[in-house]
Amino acid sequence: MANLGKCMLFYLKYAAEMERLYNVEDPKDPKLEGLPNPERILENVKLVRDTANREVAEFLKTCEPGIDKHFRAISNPLRMRNNLNTWELKFKVGPKNATDRRFEIGVSILENPAALIPWVWCPGGRRAEDGVLRILGVGHRSDTLPGWASGSVGLAKIKILIPDRLEDPVECDSLVDQVQQAFASFTTQDVEEIDRIASNRGEA
Predict the structure, then answer these.
(1) Run of H or E residues at 71
(2) Residue 41, pLDDT above cutoff 60
(3) What is the pTM of this model?
(4) 105: helix, coil or strand?
(5) Beta strands 114-121; 78-80: pairing state
C-alpha cells in the first residue's frame, strides 16, 4: 500500500460529521433536517465509511510485519483479530516460552485529531500505567487519550496530515516507520517486567 486511501482521508477530515450521521437509519431523522436528498446522503456516508474501514485495515496490515518481527525476537506475541469497524491492530504479548500472554500492544487510529497511537495496555489501572511508564521511560497516560481504558499507555501521537485536496497522496511508509520506531526500544527485559505488573494487577 503506497498511499493512504482517499475514503479513509475523507472520513478523517470530516470525522465529526461522518460520525454524527453514520448510524442514522431514517432519512427523516432530525440530524438530516435541512440537508438535500437525505436518502442519498445516508447511502454515501455508509459507502464512504465501509470503504474507509477496508482502507484502514489495509494500512494497519502494512504495520503488522515490522511489529510482529520485533516482538517475536523478544517475546511470545499473538495477533488478535477484530472487526473492520475497529480501527486498530492488536497483539497479546507474554515473555518468551510463556503460555500466558497478560498484556497487549497495538496501534489505533484517532479520528479527531487524526493520529496514529502506538500503545500498551496492562491490567491494573493507573498503577499499571505508572509501572509501564517507569519501565519504558516514554508515553502518555490514558487520561490524555479521551475514551481509552485505564491501564493504557500511548507511546506516541503520530499525526496524519490531511491534505486540503484529497487527491494529493499521503504516503504510508513514513507513518509505518514511525509506528515501528515507537516499539523499537522494547526489550526482552521490558516484556518480562510488564508481564510481572500484569500478573500482579498493577504491582511491579
Answers:
(1) helix 38-74
(2) yes
(3) 0.89
(4) strand
(5) unpaired
